[in-house]
Amino acid sequence: MPTLTQRLQTAPTPMAGLALGISSLGWSWESFAPLEGRAQLAGAIAATVLLLILSAKFVLHPRLLRSDLAHPVVGSVVPTFAMALMVVSKAAGAWLMPSIGVALWLVAVALHLSFLVAFVVHRTRAFELHHMVPAWFVPPVGIIVADVAFPGVSVLHPLAIGLLYVGMGLYAILLPVMIYRLIFADEIPDPAKPTIAIMAAPASLSLAGYLTVVSTPSPLLVALLGGIAVLMTLIIYLAFFKLLRLPYSPGYAAFTFPMVIGATALAKTADWMQSHGFSAHDVAIVHTLATLEVIVASVIVGYVALRYLGFYLRGWRAGALTRPA
User: Fold this and answer.
1) Could you give the CA distance from residue 12 to residue 141 in angstroms, rounded to a whole number?
2) DSSP secondary-structure letter at 71?
C-alpha cells in the first residue's frame, strides 16, 4: 500500500485552482444571502485543507514544485495557490484576528510575485507561441485577487493600487497576443483545453478589484470592463458544451474560479450602481445577472469538486486493494 508521502506526490497542482474556486464561491454567496459569514468560513476551511495537502507535497518533494514551475501549462496555474491563500486571508481576518489576515495576505502577495517571476524566467528562456494557453493570464493578472481580498489597511493601500494597475496593464498587453495565438497557432491540446475557461476571468477580476480598492471608479472603465466580463462569461458558457465532454483531468479546476469571479464582479457592480444613483431597474438587471451567474458557478464548482473527490477516492481504494498480503 502506498505511504502517505507517496500519495502526496500524486496530489495535482491544479487542485489549488479548485481551492481558489471553493473559497471564492463561499465568499461570493455572502453578497446574495444573509449568511453572516458562514459560507465564507466554510469555503475558506475547505480551501485550507486542499492548500495544506499541496503545501505538504511541495515541502516533502520540492523537486516537484521546481518541475511544475518549469512546465508551460502547470507553471501558469501554480500561482492559484497564492490566490487561494489571499481569499483565505480575508476569512482569517474576519474570524480570527485582523492581524492574522494581514500577515497571510502579505505572504500570499509575496508568494504570487515569486511565482510570477519564476514563470516569466522559464517562459522567456524557451518561448514558443503554441505553448501559450489561457492559463498564462493567471500569473500576471491573478495578482488582482490581492485587491479583491484587500484587508483594508491604509498603509498597504498604495501597494494594492499598484498591484491592480500592474495586473490590468498586463491583461491589456496579453489579451491581443492570446487571441492571435488562439486563432493562428496550433490547436490547444486536449489536456490543456480546460484552461480555455480562464478567458472569462481577467475582465471580471479586474472589475472586482477595481471596485474594491479605487475610491472613485470611472463609470466608463466600469462599463468597459463589465461589458467585456459579461461577454467573455457568455462565451465560456457556450464553450462548456464542449469542455465538459473532455475526459476528466485535474485541469477541470480551471472551470471554477472564472465562473465565481464573474458573479462577484457583477454583484459589486450592482452595489456600486445603487450607491451612485442608477435607476432601480438597471440595478435589478445587473443583480439578476449576478444571481444567475452565482447559481451557475455553484453548479460548476460542485460538479468539479465531486469529480475530483470521486477520482481520487477511487485511486486511494485501488492503492488499498493492491496492498501486499
Assistant:
1) 22
2) S
